[in-house]
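Reopening: Zinc ribbon domain-containing protein still failing for me.
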Amino acid sequence: MSFFDKVKQSAAEAARLAQMTLEVTKLQTQISSREKEVERKQLLAGQAALDAYKAGDLKAAERVVAAQSASILALQKEVQRLQSRILSLKNEKLCPCGSHLPQHALFCSRCGHKFTGGASALPGEGGRDPL
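Support: Ran it again with your exact input. Result attached.
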């Protein structure tokens, strides 16, 4: 392989990594936005519950709390989808202990978790195999 071919190959790899970094940054920004929205909705639900408690009628807050809770669950699901996309872009998987590992890893170097089938699991999705 000639010098210029190596330079061309290195430049192509650098461009690919830059594109991946840009995409990950965009996804992280979206995650941050969704998490802030979850906090806002939690505050609204909490305020409605407190106001109803003060008024002595907790039933009055039920509709607001239910609507905010449904929105929160949808946002949390979206955050998990975005996190999964980041792992895919980075060619990584997530151990139940929270460690990020290469997609091909069979065991977690932190906790020893054994992976089977190559699937990654996000927190809350199970994915823990019996040892």
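The longest strand covers residues 92-94. If you still see a failure, please send the error message rather than a screenshot.
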